[in-house]
Each structure stands twice: as C-alpha cells, then as structure tokens.
Design brief:
By secondary structure, the chain is α+β, with helices and mostly antiparallel strands. It is 18% helix and 38% strand. It has 3 helices and 9 strands.
Length: 206
C-alpha cells in the first residue's frame, strides 16, 4: 500500500511539473484562470455533405491576460475520411468593462493584439480550406524554418512577426457573466458576440 501511495505521489508531482512548465510557455504570463466563456457555432456545406462545429472559448486570467481558443471540428456525413481538427490559441493582455449594450450581465472584453499564436491542424478535412490548408503545428514563440515553409509557400521568407501581423488583431467581444447575478438561472458564461478572426472556410468564400 505504501508503495502504491508513493507511486501515486510521484505521478502527481510529475503532472504538476508538466502543468507548471506549460504555463510558463505562454508569452502572456502564467496567471491563474479567473473565468471562462464559451459558445458554439455549427455550420454545414450541404452540397458536399460536410459539417463543422466551431467552438470559441475565452479564458481570462487573474493577471489581466487572456487565451482565446478557436477550435474547429469538421467531418463528412457520407465521406467518413473527410475529418479534421483545427485549434488556434491567441495569447495576450486584456481589460474588461460594463458592456456598451447596457445589459447588466454583459461585459465588454477588450483584447490587445496577441503576443503569441499557436495553430494546430490535423486531418483530411483541413487540406482544402481557404486559409492555411494542410496538416501542421505553428507556434510564433518557437518559430522554425519549417513553419516559414508552411506559412509562406511562395517565397519562403515570412516569419513569426508576419504571422502575428496577419492573424493577430486587437478585438473587443461581449460576454455574459453569470456571476453578476447568481440567482438568475437563465444566465450562462457565454460569448455573446463572436470574434472576427479573418479565418476562412470554403462556405465563407465569395
């Protein structure tokens, strides 16, 4: 029993070490998570039988930093091989204020342009999208020549600063904060206005 307890303690210590290292890897600091807001947007390309779920999650930390996570899961209704997962995370600083729309439960979260972006993409479902097709991982805080080749296929010259300039923008979004009135069970921690990140899928092309 003592041996099992010791093994579990070592495993927990290793897990905590991994979590602390992951937190230190963010260029926006390692503040503790204060609250999160989420919303889901489903979409379909009926002519092709493809379906997409976009999940937006805004994580606010206690040191006035944020992580905006944009996760997309797409799959084919008939073509089972047409699957893919894309996760893009933006790291930066932010401020909050009562919303301009006047709703007591709403806050406007003003996010500065991110100082770091990670972009992970897998599966056949993302080999034919308009913005950055393919299977890859990009991290602007740990840029490599291989990432330049993925991002700048034609000239192979652009780097992390170019990537941040193209995909990182300051944004203000409105959220609903359930903690404003805990007795109101109709309130949820949700994103009210979706961020426009300029990342296009096929159904958004003109």
């Amino acid at each position: 029993m003592k041996r099992i307890t010791k093994i579990m303690s070592c495993a927990m210590a290793a897990l905590m070490l991994c979590l602390s290292l992951a937190a230190c890897g963010s260029s926006s600091g390692s503040g503790a998570i204060k609250t999160t807001f989420t919303t889901i947007r489903p979409a379909a390309i009926e002519a092709m039988g493809w379906y997409t779920d976009e999940v937006f999650t805004l994580q606010l930390n206690d040191n006035n930093t944020y992580q905006l996570i944009y996760h997309t899961n797409r799959f084919g209704g008939e073509d089972l091989e047409m699957r893919g997962v894309r996760t893009i995370t933006f790291f930066g600083k932010c401020t909050s204020a009562p919303s301009a729309d006047g709703e007591p439960s709403h806050l406007d979260i003003s996010m500065e342009a991110p100082t770091q972006i990670t972009w992970e993409q897998h599966g056949k479902g993302f080999t034919r999208v308009q913005t950055l097709p393919g299977i890859f991982f990009i991290n602007t805080s740990a840029w490599t020549d291989a990432m330049t080749a993925i991002y700048d296929v034609e000239n192979n010259t652009k780097g992390a600063s170019d990537f941040l300039a193209e995909f990182g923008k300051a944004m203000t979004i409105t959220v609903e904060d359930a903690s404003v009135d805990p007795e109101d069970t109709t309130l949820t921690n949700r994103i009210v206005t979706l961020p426009d990140m300029g990342i296009l899928l096929e159904e958004e092309e003109n």
